[in-house]
TrEMBL record:
This is Integral membrane protein. It comes from Streptomyces botrytidirepellens. Keywords: Membrane, Transmembrane, Transmembrane helix. It comes from the Bacteria. The chain crosses the membrane at residues 30-50, 62-81. The lineage of its organism: Bacteria, Bacillati, Actinomycetota, Actinomycetes, Kitasatosporales.
Length: 107
């Protein structure tokens, strides 16, 4: 009986770790974080552009506009993750002798 309790406790612990890992490696966090980091870098490059660089681009500060756009997109991904977090997975109900399984035929 204690073995059953020990296994059940281990299973519950692993399910908790799995849910935490799923939230930690949410693709929205990774994509949003990368866009924010690259957006900051490109925005700084756009702010510190020289006059010669602006003339090459016909006086359009491409780095500034691209950096700000990337920054906004990254923040939108992070906001989306914050407003709509991943649902916590619920364990499947246990099958007992009185509960038929999905493949069992009833009567």
């Amino acid at each position: 009986m204690s073995d059953d309790y020990e296994y059940q406790h281990e299973v519950e612990e692993l399910e908790g770790k799995s849910a935490t890992a799923a939230r930690l490696f949410d693709v929205r966090r990774i994509i949003g974080g990368l866009f924010v980091i690259y957006g900051i870098i490109v925005t700084i490059a756009g702010i510190t552009v020289s006059d010669a660089g602006l003339k090459k681009a016909e006086n359009i500060n491409i780095n500034l506009w691209t950096g700000v756009s990337m920054l906004v997109l990254g923040l939108l991904f992070l906001l989306w993750m914050k407003l709509r977090p991943l649902p916590v997975p619920h364990p499947a109900p246990e099958q007992g002798p009185d509960r038929p399984g999905p493949g069992d035929a009833e009567g």
